[in-house]
Design goal:
Elements lengths: L21 E5 L4 E5 L14 E4 L11 H11 L6 E4 L22 E6 L11 E4 L2 H14 L5 H13 L1 H28 L6 E4 L6 E6 L6 H10 L5 E2 L17 E5 L4 H25 L1
Parallel strand pairs: 2-7, 3-4, 4-5
Antiparallel strand pairs: 1-2, 5-6, 7-8, 8-10, 9-10
Amino acid sequence: PDYTGYGGVSLIPEAVFSYQPKLDIDEVNHHFKYRPDFSQLIIDETTGCVIFSRPCNPSGNVLTEEEVKKIAALATPFNVPVFIDSAYAPPFPALNFTEMKPVFGDNIIHCISLSKAGLPGERLGIAIGNESTIQVLEAFQTNMCIHSPRYGQAIAARAIGSGALSEIAAEVIRPYYQQKFTVVETALNQAMPKNLPWFLHRGEGAIFAWMWFKDLPMTDWELYQQLKEVGVIVVPGSSFFPGLQGEWSHKNQCIRISLTATDEEITEGMKRLATVIEQVYQHSIVGV
């Protein structure tokens, strides 16, 4: 899964392709992690670009340095640019909870956003990579935004130049959300039935928690409606698989949980989630 907005990067929706990943499952601890399945990945002369987020929205997954380099290497013979959506990456907002470094290469372009580092309304971004590719991005941006915000740029320039933004990201923003993820993880471990096939994606970054309910007896949208009835709002996971070819039941078994609520609200929400999930699986067994 990846950012749902990638489904709109092409004027022709059918031109967007995504590939089913491998699942690295820790059944004992109810954790799992997505990993690229390179046996499926196809990059050739018909590929316009490759794009992924690191850390990932929605799952928080962080591709390893070796995985990023392998993707870039596959794209190099065909002069295909690799766009890394770094909206949650270091140096700001540095919302990585595991060690990660930006990977650079001739065909890699890092797209950094300040929207998660204090300037969401200004829509400011930074691109780092091949100059000729960035010039194309500049042309598109000029057409879309005739008069870009100057005040936000001035604030960002001072914050970056002084080093304050990187410091705030590492010492304030990252610890805040990392602690929120710990609250989710702890609450789930305490409330969720151990005998049910629920899995929390490893907390490697971003501002969300991502859950998978294996063999869920209903769709993610139906689960969303049941959770809403008890005052718990999540995002159905099937929205985050733009361009996936073929059917995969997994995509209808996931939800995204925001980490922006208070600790008390998160804990209570996970308790209610656990109650609903237990009822859903029990009713399925009774129905059979």
